[in-house]
Amino acid sequence: MAHDEFEQRLGLAALFSQQSDAARENGSPLYAGIARAAALDLAGASVLTGLLEPWARSRAGDMLPLRVLGAAHRLVLERGAPALAMWFPSVGGVAPTNAAGRGACYAAWVDALAAHRSRLPELLANPPQTNDPGRGAGLSGMLSIVADTWGLPIRLHELGASAGLNLHADRMRLLWPGGSWGPPDSPLVLHDAWRGGPMPSATAPDVIERVGCDLAPVDVATTQGRLLLTSYTWPDQPARFERLRAAYELAMRTTVELRQVDMLEHLRSLSPVPGTALVVWHSSTWMYLNAVERVEARAAFARLGSRATPDAPVVHIAREYLGERLHARFAVVTQWWPPPQNHVAQGFSAGSAIQYADSPAHGLPVTWMTPRLVELEDM
After folding, report:
1. Domain membership flag for residue 128
2. pLDDT band at 1 (very low <50, low <70, confident <90, very high)
3. How far apart are CA 236 and CA 247, in angstroms?
4. Which of 28, 115, 123, 163 is the most exposed place for a label (fewest CB within 10 A)?
């Protein structure tokens, strides 16, 4: 999905069909089957078509299928959909393995949504709050590169932070064949975290400020906050649940500041500070901005970068889906103000969009590559 496609209104059947393909590619047969059945159902008159009619004109970037899947999972976690719970491994159920089981699971899924139709406006109101800590594998590597480049304390800010779990990226323990990175005593261990090369150095970043912004920040110290994040974790992926539980424990050890504010407003409020490196990061958030907001965000980053100095550099790190033309899934792309000397030698200039790595939707593993210039109108 290229960025102009975020604005397209393809119809719910097409959106659920795309989600089915994405779920299959990213290791969730359960969600692939449910989304495929939903796509067929939504092609004509059906109970599901009626339930989702208020959202029939959703733009692709709204990620409505993920909102609906998350809503049904939340009903299961709240013990409000016992027939569906039988099929969800997240609560001890067994995912279907044949056509009859998939049919029964899908019927229970629709029944659960229908039984709670009055809650759908509430459950579908906000973007998915996945906040998968696996995304921290890419950020941790980039923080090491920033530390190695500038040798300055880092002020880390995240746009669309949700619960801010990835603001703890430097506190995660990363393992891969032949190497490791991060505190050995971290409760959150990311296995098979890095591949490819050249990999980041072992320079430990000194993160002195951790701030995230979100229109609806999630407090993982509360039951409701943890329930929300868990509902957006795919039910048949136990490793992701283990990462999430470990991330909750890590979040209790390190303080972050979460602000309830629009990401563009927060971005415009930032300034370089002498003696520190300002790192602004976001992951899987760009699609939620409309075309005008993306233009405004690019301009805000350029203005912020124009005020940077070697003693107060600004670094923009994005882990986003940026279009098939990159032959990437979720590219890790960075802009530097000013550019590091080794990048200047390669012909990169201030604000150049440079890809360092690729990653799957949920973050692991990160595949590092020789940094290369990419032409991205949406960065």
Report:
1. no
2. very low
3. 19
4. 115
For residues 39 and 173, membership in a common domain is answered with: no
Same domain as 209, residue 67: no
Kindly tell me the sign of the dihedral angle through the C-alpha atoms of 305, 310, 314, 315: positive
Lowest mean pLDDT among 2-11, 74-83, 141-150: 2-11
Count other C-beta atoms under 10 Å from residue 266's C-beta: 21
Residues 32 and 177 in one domain: no
Inter-residue contact 368 to 139 (CB < 8 Å): no
Average pLDDT of span 327-332: 82
Number of independent structural domains in the chain: 2
Are the C-beta atoms of 207 and 154 separated by less than 8 Å? yes
In the numeric block, the tokens 């102009």 are attached to 4
Pair 7, 60: CB distance under 8 Å: yes
Asked if residue 93 and residue 212 are part of one domain, the reply reads no
Higher pLDDT, 60 or 80: 80
Same-domain status, 156 and 291? yes
Residue 103 has φ and ψ, to the nearest 5°, of: -65, -45
The CA-based dihedral angle spanning residues 156, 147, 355, 309, taken in that order and rounded to the nearest 10 degrees: 80
Residues 6+ apart with CB under 8 A from 48: 38, 41, 42, 110, 113
Task: Assign 359 a pLDDT band (cuts: 50, 70, 90).
Answer: very high
pLDDT in the model for residue 342? 87
Q: Which domain holds residue 47?
A: 3-123
Regarding pTM above 0.85, the answer is: yes
Residue 2, pLDDT score: 46
Q: What is the DSSP letter of 170?
A: G
For residues 231 and 90, state if they share a domain: no
